[in-house]
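Side project, low priority. Logging it here so it doesn't get lost.
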Amino acid sequence: MKSFLFLGLVFCLLLESCSSGKGALKKGDYYAAVSQAVSRLRQNPDHKKSKEVLKTGYSMAIDYLESETQNQIASNANFKWTNAVQNYTLINNLYEQIRTSPGALKIIPNPVNKYNELNEVKSKAAEETYEEGIQAMLKNTREDAKRAYFLFSEANNLILGYRESIEMMEQSKFNATLKVIVEPTFQNYNDWNFEPVVFGVRNNQFVRFYTPKEAQDENLQQVDQFVKVTVNNYSESRPNIAKRVETFKDSIKVSEKTVNNQKVPVYEKVTATMTIFEKSITSHGSITLYIKEAGSNAALRNSDIVSEIRWADKWATCSGNLKALSESNRKMCGTKEPFLNRDNLRNQTKNDLDRKLANSLSGFYSQY
């Protein structure tokens, strides 16, 4: 019991330390320490430890972020202005947090903000990321085009519409995008079409699927891959009917009798026989996913996707005393032979193939 109480006390102390920011302050994470303290004071303006953390940690957090910013600006480090934006944003976050916490505002009545400085460094950070994006574009590789896209996006986020950042985002994304033509599915007996599944794959923003007509209408100069889905077959087995006979025995109360002036139940042994039939049908469907490289015609994926769906249902005939049966078994007695809807298994198989095809495509194109 003493051990349990001790562990509980330790847990409470740790929780108190974390919620007040004291733990983060000891680790030198001044921003987190102050942020946690302000949050706690918003809930409890008189929280003693949070007051201490805020009073001690706030100036340390501001000094640290300001010195880091000035050191970055004075250096030749890549993205130094972007780092400056991040640091000034953190200072402004603390400013807004304190302003919305009456308890914290009593401890820090004049919090520091860097809004003017932030506007100045944002302009330089936008230029910095934009120029880096241009350099990435000049390398003329798909991976560098991806990097350029995110750099131009960052420049546009820093200053909306900065130079030609929006146009360059579109161009870099087009250059980075894998262009895949989806060849039409051949007409087949079940009239299955898997093209909507292919076009529904959306897990990679840098992959775009085109119909042959779209590629022609857009005068697509470069094609990277071709995708084709071929329907191989679909079949259903003949109905298979299995039969088994089961005997059930039980004792049921039929009356009462008096023994030594007390009523006692009288039981009778009863027996019932069930003949249980189970009908099952299995469907089999198969397609082939074929992906090839446009330039070399090399096969990148050539795999069969298979689906098997089993349907089964039961009915039964019964004889004897049905009171020997459970309620679920009694309900089965006298049921008729079930018949499956004509399109049921075919539709289930198509849906299963759709799902497996989508997963296969998503897995393949996630690497791009």
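Brief comment: Strands lie at 178-182, 207-210, 225-236, 240-259, 262-293, 299-320.
Revisit when time allows.
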